[in-house]
Amino acid sequence: MKPPATPVPTALAAGPTRRDLLTGIGLLVLGQWILTLLDATGKTLTQQGLPVVAVAWIRYLGHVVAIFLLLGPTRFKAQSRPALPGLQWLRGGLMLLSTLVFFSVLKLMPLAQATALNFCAPLFVVALSPWLLGERPNAHARLSRWGGVLIGFAGMLVVVRPGGQLTPLGVGLGLTSALLFALLQMLTRRVAAHDAPMTTLIQSGITGACLTTLLVPFFWFEAMPTALQCALLLSAGITGSVGHYFVIRAFQYADASFLSPFLYLQIISATTVGYLAFGQLPDWTTALGIAVICVGGVCVAGGESVMRAVARAFRRAP
């Protein structure tokens, strides 16, 4: 699950230090934990009967406000002008659709399993990128990537096995969410060639807020949310924007090839928060399937060569 490419600071261009690498990992993990809190908030609110669209509306509105306060008026204005507005609006709409589907998945299945199914997104990217992105990797890379796809697919079958904990509707929505996320990643690669990551982050919030504003009158709250629900709704925008902000900052300290294996650490935060907030733990068979999906994802990202690159980066860093 590669994030959008980021402008490389001078320090990173000269070669990251060990401190830079550790800072990048720390920011990435911190961002993942914060985004897992967003997922847990969405799961809590939708399970309590709040409309998914209304929850998403406040999430995206809060996203824009939080980024505005984080950057300040001058920087927000300077970084909110995309080079290709149409492509950014398309990406933002796809991100909103992905959010709505994933919140619906969280309503139906445990947090860890929902997150694991979303890890299938890189498998879809490999399958679709030759046609949608025109990517033609060499034979060795193709073997590694498609081997990862097969491993990840086997893990997915273990997670959704007949007689498991998951409903067919939840599984269907989970795989749809992964497909949407894969398409979002591919579109993110396109916009990254023209806009800075912060511009994309701002535009994602603006697009989501505008589109949900059009939809939310048809999906309004049936009753006034409680004080606790209001607090959770307000936190959704904050955790969404701040979590993505930390992930972006992580890739300014270390590049994507170094950080890609650490993306799968989110399963730890999803499992921990899922247990603490909902008392849900995957059984051993499901845990095995989740682990296999993660291994498949690492293979898709480059497998053994990526892990060697991570080790070399630490050895060479001053």
From TrEMBL:
Q: Which PANTHER family match?
A: ACYL-MALONYL CONDENSING ENZYME-RELATED, BLR2811 PROTEIN
Q: Which domain of life is it from?
A: Bacteria
Q: Which Pfam families match?
A: EamA
Q: Where is the EamA domain?
A: 24-160, 169-299
Question: What InterPro entries does the record tag this protein with?
Answer: EamA_dom (IPR000620), EmrE-like (IPR037185)
Q: Which gene encodes it?
A: ribN
Name of the featured protein: Riboflavin transporter
Tell me the keywords, alphabetical order.
Membrane, Transmembrane, Transmembrane helix
Q: Does the keyword Calcium belong to this entry?
A: no
Q: What is the lineage of its organism?
A: Bacteria, Pseudomonadati, Pseudomonadota, Betaproteobacteria, Burkholderiales
Query: Where are the bilayer-spanning segments?
Result: 21-38, 50-71, 92-110, 116-134, 146-163, 169-188, 200-220, 226-246, 258-278, 284-306
